[in-house]
Amino acid sequence: MPFLDSNIPSKIFYASVGSEILRIARTTSNLHDLVTRVNALLTRMAKQGSKHKQIASLINKLFGRHFNVFKKFADTANQFIRLLNL
Predict the structure, then answer these.
(1) Rounded to two decimals, what is the model's pTM?
(2) Side-chain half-sphere of 21: how many Cα atoms within 13 Å?
(3) What is the pLDDT confidence band of residue 12, given thresholds at 50, 70 and 90?
(4) Are 61 and 68 spatial neighbours (Cβ–Cβ below 8 Å)?
(5) Is the pLDDT of residue 3 over 80?
(6) Residue 15 predicted with pLDDT over 90
(7) What DSSP line would sit under the chain, residue for residue?
(8) How high is the pLDDT of residue 7?
(9) Which of 59, 58, 47, 71 is nearest to 11 (CA)?
(10) How far apart are CA 44 and CA 61, in angstroms?
């Protein structure tokens, strides 16, 4: 476990979760499976103290950067966020 005064960025938690959401989206072709797996991940994040606003921001950025991956599930980032019940 890193020391509290170390220089590790505080957003590394969200970056790793973002890459996991991207991995799930790339390997899943069914919308129901995607929503189930991402919601399980987001539930674990919430238990660890994540903030709703930062999760939504993360998904917006992820959707914009990897639109071709997410376009099979939703047309916009807001639509994708609504699918996840955020």
Answers:
(1) 0.80
(2) 30
(3) low
(4) no
(5) no
(6) no
(7) ---TTS---TTHHHHHHHHHHHHHHHH---HHHHHHHHHHHHHHHHHTT--HHHHHHHHHHHHHHTHHHHTTT-SSHHHHHHHTT-
(8) 56
(9) 58
(10) 21
